[in-house]
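Q&A FORM
Asked by: J.P.
Topic: structure of Alkaline shock response membrane anchor protein AmaP

PROVIDED:
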Amino acid sequence: MSLLDRLLLFLFSVIGLVVGVVLALVGANVISVTWLSTELLTVPYNMVAIVVGVVAALLSLRFLFYRLSRMQTAEYVALTGDHGQIRISYDTLRQLANRRGSQLKGAESFDSRIRQGQEGILILVRMQVLPDVDIAQLSRDAQTAVKEYVERATGVVVERVLVHVTELAGGARSGKAWSGV
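REPLIED BY: S.T.
REPLY: Here is the structure written out as tokens.
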């Protein structure tokens, strides 16, 4: 939950507390209903009542739809095991893809994102490559290696691996690419 959402939730709680105390005082006959209604209908208080009511309604809608939108996006892949459901988070799948991709010769920087596809997951890869490397072949190797590694390690179907080569890496590091000697 973001800082703004926490602040809005605090404001909503204060409004709820004030409304709850006023309702309790009206119910206990400490505050007269007729006095409260006449006070709320006078010019400065009716504007305050309208503003507080609108803000409370908007905050209620915000948190109602915030919760519903959070429930729709699953951040995991669910598999059926022998003794129940197995959930593998997208972060775990991402770490596995990054681990295998960073082991490829010629890949300097490797980062991935996981998305839900039609028949499995999509792995979106961004990588920097070293100079003097066959980029097309390295991209195909990355697709194959990441797909096979994630499927073997997790049992999750990888629908596609999309590779985006962002740029050439600044300098050649020893051991990662052929030196040409």
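FOLLOW-UP: Residues 88-168 form a domain with the Alpha-Beta Plaits fold (CATH 3.30.70.1350).
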